């Protein structure tokens, strides 16, 4: 039975499936996560400005970094424009094949990516 997320209950896109992963699957997920994380960190593929989905960083650290940059620019007498965008459900529309191609292009190991 799908679980309701948010929004209009009549919209099927506002539900997610129930997914129970067996213990061996969870262990494999951790191995894959470790391998991908090491490759990304070793090749310095994540910029320091990346806060989402990064260990030790969050929306709060992103906000603090942004605020610090704005204050610095204002102190220098520069104008700061801010544009806010909402990418809700953006990941739901990402092509998995394109995502995997981009990961390979950034140097991630194809053998590891076969498990993704």
Automatic annotation (TrEMBL):
Domain Reverse transcriptase: 8-111
UniProt-listed Pfam families: RVT_1
Protein name listed in UniProt: Mitochondrial enolase superfamily member 1
Organism: Grus japonensis (Japanese crane)
């Amino acid at each position: 039975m799908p679980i309701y997320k948010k929004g209009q209950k009549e919209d099927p896109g506002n539900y997610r499936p129930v997914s129970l992963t067996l213990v061996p699957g969870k262990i494999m997920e951790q191995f894959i996560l470790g391998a991908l994380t090491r490759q990304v960190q070793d090749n310095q593929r994540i910029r320091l400005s990346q806060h989402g989905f990064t260990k030790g960083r969050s929306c709060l650290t992103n906000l603090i970094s942004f605020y610090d940059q704005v204050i610095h620019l204002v102190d220098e007498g520069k104008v700061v424009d801010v544009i806010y965008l909402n990418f809700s459900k953006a990941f739901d529309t990402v092509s998995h094949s394109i995502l995997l191609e981009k990961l390979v292009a950034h140097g991630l190991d194809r053998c590891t990516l076969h498990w993704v």
